What we know:
Number of strands: 0
Helix content: 55-70%
Strand content: under 5%
Shape: globular
Largest sheet: none
Structural class: mainly alpha
Number of helices: 12
Oligomer: single chain
Number of domains: 1
Amino acid sequence: MRSKMLRRLFGASVxxxxxxVVTAADPTLPPATxxxxxxxxxxxxxxxxDLSKTKKxxxxxxxxxxxxxxxxxxxxxxxxxxxMASLRAEALKIAIAAQKKDMAAAGTAAKGLKALSADAKxxxxxxxxxxxxxxxxxxxxxLMDMFGGSTGGGFNIEKDLREIKKNGVKNAEAIxxxxxxxxxxxxxxxxxxPKGATKEWDTWAIEMKKLSTDLATEAAKGKTADLAKxxxxxxxxxxxxxxxxxxxxx
Length: 250
């Protein structure tokens, strides 16, 4: 997938030069970090579904489920691969139900995630990110909406990055989760490029994935994490988002 994308952008003659970029485009989260993100976002998913009963949450139920699907996809090869395959299947089921505005079905399935076990019948075959996207007609607007405030079901990422940029890191554990979430968002961003997007879109999406994974990996060190380094990475991530938004405005 990455090789085809790069061949389209730069031509076959320079593809070999970009092999290092291809490898760097797919950094993965530490398994423990992915596990924390899965646990946190299962809880978040259930919260947003409850919130949807009284408030407008837009596509945030679907978007949260889709992040769970990509966490699972990136961990299919791990020791909990069978469970990850089950999680991917259930997360996609929830995303599809949310797309159909069937919140009752989405809610029932989301509650089941809390005690999810490996299903031997779950398809463990790897899927491309664009295949995940197609399952629920996932859109860039729904994805980016997760940067918004937590009162409406978002992750509050934009404000948190600005706070880190201004005042530094106070809680490495919270930054670990932020990095995990933006890493998953970046995986989708690369494949949700708008029509007519220039190569800058792909460059920024790949950079976002690396910065996010670096942020989560350093924050995962807990008390020994380098807070100055975390601030530097978070500031670069904020700049990455700003540069992309300035170029690709609605």
